[in-house]
Amino acid sequence: MDINSYNYKTYIPVRFGDLNAFGYVNNDVYLTYFEIAHTGYWRQILNWKSKTHGLIMGKAEIEFLKPIQLDDEVFAYVKTSRVGNCSFDVEYVLTIKTPSGEQICTTGKTSCIFFDFEAKKPNPIPEAFREKMVAFEALVS
Amino acid sequence: MDINSYNYKTYIPVRFGDLNAFGYVNNDVYLTYFEIAHTGYWRQILNWKSKTHGLIMGKAEIEFLKPIQLDDEVFAYVKTSRVGNCSFDVEYVLTIKTPSGEQICTTGKTSCIFFDFEAKKPNPIPEAFREKMVAFEALVS
Amino acid sequence: MDINSYNYKTYIPVRFGDLNAFGYVNNDVYLTYFEIAHTGYWRQILNWKSKTHGLIMGKAEIEFLKPIQLDDEVFAYVKTSRVGNCSFDVEYVLTIKTPSGEQICTTGKTSCIFFDFEAKKPNPIPEAFREKMVAFEALVS
Amino acid sequence: MDINSYNYKTYIPVRFGDLNAFGYVNNDVYLTYFEIAHTGYWRQILNWKSKTHGLIMGKAEIEFLKPIQLDDEVFAYVKTSRVGNCSFDVEYVLTIKTPSGEQICTTGKTSCIFFDFEAKKPNPIPEAFREKMVAFEALVS
Q: Is the CB of A61 less than 8 angstroms away from the CB of C59?
């Protein structure tokens, strides 16, 4: 996992309610963390507003490497790793701050699709968004 | 607390993710349980669909008497205790099934307001709803 | 997706709070639905109590095919598709009831690991559990 | 509501998943916001660790004045308004930043009880905690 290939990083505040009965962040909260990270990434890079452009998730994969606890300082790294016609892939790394540096605790990937909720079908990625995504990530479109 | 004054009762399925690090249902989940109960009550009594009539909560009170655990069988009792012009009050009792009968673990009350999200102001309770609420609870309107 | 290869099915009650601002069940709730289904499956097949045996998730994959709405009747199918030494795989299908039968809306897979939270290392699957899992699924162990 | 009587203020990051189908933060999330605020308050004032001292909530009241949306900048004010033998009261104000200053959107109050989960009974507030609470709030104990 090469953290250096990520251009966006954000802090993830852990909520007490995120914990499960074992005292660890529950598995179903990791997609929430990815969502927080992705929302922040989009706000910064695309000046995205959730209301104007519908997005759906097509697929999600999460690899849980180390559990997260309440007092952990958690960071999320986000990058767009593929930009298609209507869809794009996003990759995530979560780290925990330790005395010897950040330790990777989770990796993940989601495939997202621009979606027209009225017509119930995929929409092409708006051109302005595509350009910014490609430019920010220096992707070959 | 007179359970007999309640005409609606429903089962509340406890989710593992509802638990906190102490192994008990977290405090912020109780309003969720009230909401589940109230949604079921309204579906039955008013044939309510969430999309057509906006509702907001004006006030909520919860009294926590006994904690809830994952394996508990939880029931919610709901009644409308007051019907006003635009607003109404709902009261709740949560119980846990025990070998010696149901034990009250939580009581609560919410004040709800019919709300026009476009105009951003309260709406009178639709007459058909008011009639059904009053009839079901045998309230003096 | 062969629903007939699944021996366990359960009803998933959708909560109003599961919805996002688009009116659909939010992506991060699907793992919650898998967890509800898996907990029910284990209770029935293994007589499992969450407190005695720690389990962690190693990996999760979700494929989102059709969105879920509040009034949908959702069912979850669960099967154990692999039983290893310390770990096992679970597969999930979520369906929505329609007039023409159940429609698949989500598929998923999780890899779970028996875990000793004190020693912070994997534990072999208890023999009694393994036997029941294999017998229920008629797996070749 | 006198904001000036509050000595602690913290930022509350709104999550997309906090929203309901109307696009507003769902009612059951407000207690979560109070919890985030209270946890931060205690970390700062009492150097509190969740694991060593059990706390339960006895009562909660929430007054919803203005709804919260995803892009709102939300702040929470917290103060301890009463310190008893085993219990204490906490008051909360949530505000939203607007061009003309912060606007109050929610007020609330919770009664908390130090609790011994083993013995299942209230515990006196540890003396060191009481002193810090009283000193920080300049309360008459």
A: yes
Q: Is D55 helix (H, G, I), strand (E, B) or coil?
A: strand
Range of the structural domain that residue C108 is part of: 3-137
Burial status of residue B136 (CB atoms within 10 A of its CB: 0-12, 13-18, 19 or more): middle
Residue of C nearest to A36 (CA): C28
With CA atoms as reference, report the closest residue to D35 among C82, A15, B127. A15
Q: Decide if A17 contacts B26 (C-beta within 8 A).
A: yes
CA atoms within 13 A on the CB side of C98: 12
Task: Tell me the pLDDT band of D51, cut-offs 50, 70 and 90.
Answer: low
Q: Where are the alpha helices (DSSP H) in A23-126?
A: 30-46
Give me the residue label for tokens 């699924």. Answer: C137
The number of domains in chain D is 1
Q: Categorise residue B120: left if φ over 0, alpha if ψ from -120 to 50, beta otherwise.
A: left
In 3D space, the residue among B71, C67, B110 whose CA is nearest the CA of residue D28 turns out to be B110
Of all residues in chain D, the one with the smallest CA distance to B64 is D58
pLDDT tens for residues D77-130?
A: 999 999 999 999 999 999 999 999 999 999 999 999 998 878 888 999 989 889
Query: In this complex, do D35 and A13 lie within 8 Å of one another by their Cβ atoms?
Result: no
What own/partner pairs with CB < 8 Å and gap ≥ 24 does C124-133 have?
Answer: C124/C85, C124/C86, C125/C83, C125/C84, C125/C85, C125/C86, C125/C87, C125/C88, C126/C53, C129/C46, C129/C48, C129/C53, C130/C83, C132/C45, C132/C46, C133/C45, C133/C46, C133/C80, C133/C83, C133/C88
Put simply, the answer to whether C63 touches A64 (Cβ < 8 Å) is no
Across the interface, which of D23, D28, D29 has its CB nearest the CB of C21?
A: D23
- Secondary structure of C80-138 as H, E, C letters: EEEECCCEEEEEEEEEEEECCEEEEEEEEEEEEEEEECCCCEECCCCHHHHHHHHHHHC
CB-based burial label for B13 (10 Å; 0-12, 13-18, 19+): middle
A15 DSSP 8-state letter? P
Compute the distance between CA of residue B113 and CA of residue B130 in angstroms, rounded to an integer: 13
A13 CB neighbours in chain D (<8 A) are: 13, 36
Subunits with 3+ Cβ pairs within 8 Å of A are B, C, D
The encoded tokens of residue C111 equal 């890899």
Give B59→chain D minimum CA distance, Å.
Answer: 5
pLDDT greater at residue D22 or residue C92: C92
Instruction: Identify from A20, A25, A36, A53 which residue to disrupt to test chain D contact, counting D C-beta atoms within 10 A and taking the largest count.
Output: A36
* CATH number for position D102: 3.10.129.10
Beta carbons of B15 and C23 less than 8 Å apart: no
State the ipTM, two decimals: 0.91
Residue D130's SS3 state is helix
Q: Looking at chain D, which subunits does it touch, using at least 3 CB pairs closer than 8 Å as the criterion?
A: A, B, C
pTM attached to this predicted model: 0.92
Query: Hey, are the CB atoms on C29 and A29 less than 8 Å from each other?
Result: no
- Measured from the Cβ of residue C45, the count of other Cβ atoms closer than 10 Å reads 18
Distance, CA of C88 to CA of C58 (rounded, Å)? 10
